[in-house]
């Protein structure tokens, strides 16, 4: 205790008036980005993608708002990546396009980043990107006022990192996604000794994963699935087997390959993400099997199916994924036979996926395929996120003055805060932050700073603005109605009949009367203030207003109304 | 065994060549409708609504396809309703609008139907509707070749019915949603004696609920929640409490009211569905409490909040529901205070609801409200659908020659079939049916008949066709692009410039070049075959085709393209 207090005093010693700022820019669970700022220095942790929600119509994915980094670009010293999951690194090319910041990441993450940079869009600057190896074995990195080092944690991808960020205001321990696993499949157990040592040195703040904070006890070890695949392959001798899992779960893939070799089956990766992941993992030694253990998907077509195990992408039923295509008999190279098996070794129903997964499963069953998953078999999956047991143990070892739960929903953040209260810490020592919120640390105390504005940045292959997404929302429920008003080039008068075209609103064949009346509404609005030459803007607004009111009354719907004049 | 065989022979005695037809028209889980047909007689069981899926843009709900009933309207003798759940009865007015068929239902269902008929749309024929009391206590009803009687089953709404449908080809036992509950809250335990007796008489086919067929063991009794609310109210003395549950779960409401009275709190129903349900249940004696136990929502505003318990609609986070409004501070009459509690006593995350519920919960937590649900407390809900234990027991008592699992997904239907196999029945005795599929029973054997065509019937306040829904789908992801071609009334030539208007596709301000090039594509397509007078149709198709190809190549998107000529 003596020792601990002495050390803590060292932290308290800081009397600088420059605050250490913690800026939460990600949305909680995905598109992770945290900014640490001290005076003229900024470092960022993670830069991942997010996944569109229902009302983000047509959006492929979302990237973190980089405005704050760009506005302060002269301060940005480096970007540190915690682990090789897309929601923590996959938006990096979009940042690098705007700002050539040095990136610090482990080997695995670096290989995935290099893959991304091969995309056409990024090729022209990929050679100027500065990637630095950074993991639990490398030396601390000093960038401006910050010194950053890493320690090993467990997660569902190997070699994940916790970070120790030292600043003149004190030390922050940043632990994105993690669990405590004493018997992981590929890498070592989480380095609790290092965490304990850092805790003894005195920690100002712990930024901790909280995704599992609503769940009691400890999460199981990845090794608890060791018997799953050998016994499955034993039972399913003579059968065709597909296994679907998330492509980044390399230790799961290792367990499957291991069991496949013992069962005399060759592994056939199906789907770009799985193939890429297996290739990278093989090259880095995470999958220590000979090439002979694997087989290409085209070659596999003609072979006895009971000599193979397919590992197929699309465990969340993603439309267009290999598994989705398989379930519709639309995959070009593989097909599942009647009497074959599809095995889900993946998280059961993460938010927003249940309907897509249900459809894939139903389609498979209609094809005479048997489905094995958490509903009919135990030990099919363990999560990479610690439960309250894991989270409490780490919090107790780090024993910081302040806590910032990260990587969770508002509810999970709140449950983490309650957990901290029960551990005997001051419940007020937890900052429950939302996107854009800021905590400022100064002289060993902390207050909320001024929130910064954060907006979703949509990516859909073409540049997108929030207005476009909003319009798609309107179009999706009520359709569109276009009013074309022919106007004479000379004199600017209406010449000829107003035309109305509509789609996705009403069934035109059965709604002639409604469209006729709509035309009357438009004509009246034009006549009300017929000076098209000088007041087209006003007339246009009137048409929109009157028509909206009329249609809403008649149909209860409000289609997107476009009023367009055509000059003749 | 002797006895059983003898009885079965009685069924085998039928030698009529007219088949008994079982036509599955509902989609499995919702919008239930089953048609039984024998020669010139048809009876239907249930006529409920379905709920739109993601791609049913803007649809409020779906009703069963009534084409088969209308095409055979001269045969339709009666409609029997199994229980008072919307997915089993709420589409009835739409059928009655087209066909005045006698409806047989229990008291509770009748009251709900009467409520529906009060809607403006149905008022003009509501007085000619012929409603007949039909439940476990009424005499068998003979309609044409059919004789129908009912027995009592348990479910999450009181007085649910199983049906015995006797036809010249044998007896079908029709058991929609049910569970075995030896200690229900309101009504009696399921009448296993009656079921056993019917089984002994010999049953041709059991049409059985299968929603719980993927789950092991027996579902818990509704009474297992008896302690839930008293202990909750004990712990939350002095606190504001909202409880949300599904409005039709009258026994749950009874448990809440019971506990509220003992805790000295008055019950405040919030939301139309909850108010309606409580009113009807009170009038029928299902809620034997004095009016004094309840309080109107407006009156409650000014009272001490710890003297009340709100029962609020919207347990699945439905947008626009009372709970949704409460969580956004948009409810006109009630507001939840900081430190208040919202308790979910409802099914955790039925398909497609997790994101909506998550948002409501997160909003509440941001308001400083505590949420209690299955994640942090046991015994918050029990299902109304039996698990494999319940389903097996009933199957063994009925011991029919054939089985048709109903009311489940394709997977649940398949799991029911596997369960039947394990019970020692012939697995081939189970018909796994999809929408529109038909089973024909003749001389004690059964075969699949010719599948009939079934289409979703959308209801969204205005009549909807599938084309409109399809267009909304396109609009929702890729937006719309309108091409206006001005054409001279005389001579039918292009006069003036082609105009292009777009919404929800690209951000116009940043895409002037793309729109310019699109105009070139249109002009070229017109010039290719410039005879607008004689070939506008062909030109229009060319414009659409060329533009689609061009935009897809440039942007990877395919907006809905509308080509419109305007005559001047």
Short description:
With 568 residues, chain A is an alpha/beta fold.
Count the strands of chain A?
24
Contiguous low-pLDDT stretches of chain A (5 residues minimum) are: 1-13
- Using only CA atoms, what is the Rg of chain A? 29 Å
Please describe the biggest sheet of chain A, giving its number of strands, its sense, and whether it closes into a barrel: 8 strands, mixed
Q: Provide a count of the helices of chain A.
A: 17
The termini of chain A sit apart by 88 Å
The average pLDDT value of chain A, as a whole number, equals 91
Taken from the alpha-carbon principal axes, the silhouette of chain A is globular
Question: In oligomeric terms, what are we looking at?
Answer: homodimer
Give the fraction of residues assigned to helices of chain A.
25-40%
Greatest chain-chain contact: A-B, 68 and 68 residues
The secondary structure category of chain A is alpha/beta
Quote the beta fraction of chain A.
15-25%
Q: How do the strands of the widest beta sheet of chain A line up side by side? A: 7-6-5-3-2-1-19-20
What does this structure look like?
The structure is a homodimer of 568-residue chains. With 568 residues, chain A is an alpha/beta fold. Chain A contains 17 helices and 24 strands. In chain A, the strands form five sheets. The first copy, chain A, has an eight-stranded mixed sheet. Chain A has a six-stranded mixed sheet with strand order 8-9-10-11-12-18, covered by helices on one side. A five-stranded parallel sheet of chain A has the order 14-15-13-16-17, sandwiched between helices. In chain A, a hairpin with a 2-residue loop joins strand 2 and strand 3. In chain A, helix 16 (512-528) runs antiparallel to helix 17. The radius of gyration of chain A is 29 Å and the shape is globular.
